[in-house]
UniProtKB/TrEMBL annotation:
Pfam families hit by this protein: AhpC-TSA
Residue stretches making up the Alkyl hydroperoxide reductase subunit C/ Thiol specific antioxidant domain: 6-47
Listed InterPro entries: AhpC/TSA, Thioredoxin-like_sf
Protein name as it appears in the record: AhpC/TSA family protein
Single GO molecular function: antioxidant activity
SUPFAM superfamilies cross-referenced by the UniProt entry: Thioredoxin-like
Superkingdom, taxonomy of origin: Bacteria
Source organism of the structure: Desulfonauticus submarinus
Signal peptide: none
Length: 47
C-alpha cells in the first residue's frame, strides 16, 4: 500500500488502549481531523 499526505487512506478499524480500556477505532471516526498513523509490527513480538 502506498499512502502519501493528501491521498485518502482506505477505511480500516483496529483496537487500541484509551482511557483505561480497550476500544475499537475506525479511521472514519476521525474524518475532518489531522491523523498520524504509525505501525510498528515488531514492537510487541518475540522476534
Amino acid at each position: 500500500m502506498n499512502v502519501r499526505p493528501g491521498v485518502e487512506a482506505p477505511e480500516f478499524s483496529l483496537q487500541g488502549y484509551y482511557e483505561g480500556g480497550v476500544k475499537e477505532f475506525k479511521l472514519s471516526d476521525f474524518r475532518g481531523k489531522w491523523v498520524v498513523i504509525c505501525f510498528y509490527p515488531a514492537d510487541f513480538t518475540f522476534v
